[in-house]
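User: quick one, fold this
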Amino acid sequence: MSTDLNRTMIELGVKAREASCALAQLETDVKNRALRFAAQGLRDRAAAIKEANALDMAAGRDKGLDKAMLDRLMLDDKRIEAMAAGLEDIARLPDPVGRVLDAWDRPNGLHIERVAVPLGVIGIIYESRPNVTADASALCLKSGNAAILRGGSESFHSTSAILDAIHDGLDQAGIDRAAIQMVPTPDRAAVGIMLTMHDYIDVLVPRGGKSLIRRVREESRIPLFQHLDGNCHTYVEASAPLDMARKVVLNAKMRRTGICGATETLLVDRAAVATHLPVLVKDLLDAGCAVRGDESALAADIRATPASEEDWRTEYLDAIIAVKVVDGVDDAIRHINAHGSSHTEAILTEDRQSAEKFLRGCHSAICLWNASTQFADGGEFGMGAEIGISTGKLHARGPVGLDQLCTMKYVVYGHGQVRPG
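Assistant:
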C-alpha cells in the first residue's frame, strides 16, 4: 500500500478531528448560513456539475453499469435543484446539538441532564449516487460533525463538483473547509485505510452494493450505521380496497425501481387470490415489470415466470418482482422475517387488528400501513434528508437524520457536593 496514500488519509483524519472540535461549538445561525450559501452554490455551479456528471455517465456506460446504477448516478437540473432545496430544508430544521434529552434532580442537590452532542467525525463510503455528497455534508454540518467523504470511482467527477459548491458555503460562513473533506483519489485502497482509522473517525456509514457493505462489515474497526440491502415487501390482505392496492403496489415497485425502498416481493393473502391477485399481477406486467411467482401467481397470468427460492431473498433494483401467496398475516410476517433484510415492509388492509399485528411482528426498521414502501426516505419523514437507512438495532434505525447523528453526554450541576466515603 502506498505510503503517500496512507499519509494523505491520515492528514484528512487529523484535519477532520480538529474541525470537529470547532463544529461542535458553532452557533446554529452560522451552520444555517453555510447551508443556505451552499444551496446557492449548487445552483450557481449547476452547469459545471452537469458537465462533471456527463463525464461520469460516459465512463459508467463504457464500464457497463446497469440501468439502476446509471439512474442513481445521473444528475440533471431537477436533481440538482432537489439537492439545493434539501440543504435549505435542513437549515430550517431545529438544531439537534445541545438538546436536553432528560433531566432530574438527586436528593443531594445535584442536577443532572442528558444532553445531545455530535458524534465527532463521520466517514461516508458510497457508490454511484452523487446526491449523497450534498445530503451527507449538510446533515453532518448541521449536527456539528466533521465528514470525510469517499464517493465511488464512478461518481468521482460529480462528487468533486458538488463538494466545490459545499465549500463555497463553508467559505462564506467562515467555517474551515476541513469540516467536509473528500478522499482525493478513486483508488480503492483508500477504503481499506479508512476502515482502520479509528483514531480519527467515530462512525462509518457505507452506502452502496452488497460487496461494498459486506467488505466494510468484515474489515471495519469502526462502528457502523449500515444496511446490507433493501429486500422490501408489500403484503395485500383481502380487506384492502382493490383500487388502493393497485395504486400502492404499482407505486411501491415501479416509481423508481433502483432505490432501496422499492418493493421487491409482493405477498398476497390467500383469501384475496380471486379478487386481487390477477389484477395486481396484470398491472405489474402491463407496466413492464417481470413477475416471478409461485403457483398461484403463475396461474394468474401466463406471462409470469416461476420463482426460485433465491427470488424471495433478492433485491432486484430493477423492474422485477417476486410474488407469493401467503396464509394470512401471520404467514406474511414469518415470510418477511425469514427472507427480508430488516429494511421496509408495508401492509395494505382495512383490518386494524391485522395491521397492528403486522406492525408489531415485522422486525424491520420501517413498517407502513396502507402506504407505499417508497416513502422509506429521510426527506419524506420530514428529516430534510438522510445519510442512509440503518437496519441495525443499536442507536439508529431507519432513516439516519440529524437526531441520529448525535450521541449524548451527561452534564451534572452541583454547588460543592462531595461523595461521602
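User: anything notable?
Assistant: DSSP finds 14 helices and 16 strands in the chain.
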